[in-house]
Amino acid sequence: MLKINVAKSSGFCFGVRRAIDISNDLSGKSKNVRVLGDIVHNSFVVRDLKKKGIKKIRSIRKTKESTLIISSHGAPKKVFSTARQCGYKVVDATCPKVKDIYRIAKRLENTNKIIIIGDAGHDEVKGIAGQLKKRPITLEKPVDVSKRKLTGIKKAAVITQSTQDIENITNIMNRIHKIIPKARLYNTTCRTTVVKQNDIRTLPKENDVILIIGSKTSANTKRLYQISKRINPSTYWIESNKSLKKIWFKNAKKVGVMAGASTPDHITRSVVKTVREYK
């Protein structure tokens, strides 16, 4: 029989749970509730909210008596003002940790060039950049660090997307310091991310197969998968039990399970139940 070990840090983080609670509360009290993009990066959560009448929109247009929820990832300042001008009542479900990053970035901008370590196309990174007066530099990986990008910068403040890989941050900072020796890192990776990443550096060593559960759009889940895959090649990234393949567990005795920060517990339970039925 397979032994299944679910990481203690699996599942929702505080910011995700808060955003979902805000949305659920509004679904029972207000009409014409919309969310800009995905409230969190999980297709099952988005689907469940849609059933409750909260629809996802991709752009802001004029409306009457409508409510717009800003997702847990946050948004540029311009989005808030545009939404209000178009007639929306804006409800901000931005993760408090992300708001802390906003405050740090804005405070440092007057005396530093802001550098963000993060995924350039991610909503959170767009939101951070959208708080600033001047366009920051965004670096995703060590190879992005070049003299051409950083030339002429004498004083820099480096902040991090809340779900960044700690090793990636260290490797990028090592390269930045060769070009800007006085660059200072303000590590704004959230505590939940650190705990999950620490767990996923241990789990692959103690189990034959690792399952990472979460949507393909989830940055924190992607990071967990990448870390685990480097340690244990038998790591699989799935969205639900429907993605499972029995052959993965043919010679396995122990299976480790880690769910991303936006993955509902019921999805994890269904995965565990299905795997248990294999042997």
Description:
A four-stranded parallel beta sheet has the order 1-12-10-11, sandwiched between helices. The chain has a four-stranded parallel beta sheet with strand order 3-2-4-5, sandwiched between helices. The model has no long low-confidence stretch (mean pLDDT 95). It has 279 residues and is α/β, with parallel strands linked by helices. The termini are close together. The chain contains ten helices and twelve strands. It has three domains: 3-11 and 191-276, Cobalt-precorrin-4 Transmethylase, domain 1 (3-Layer(aba) Sandwich), CATH 3.40.1010.20; 14-94, 3-Layer(aba) Sandwich (Rossmann fold), CATH 3.40.50.11270; 97-186, 3-Layer(aba) Sandwich (Cobalt-precorrin-4 Transmethylase, domain 1). Helix 3 links the parallel strand 4 and strand 5. Helix 8 (191-206) runs parallel beside helix 9.
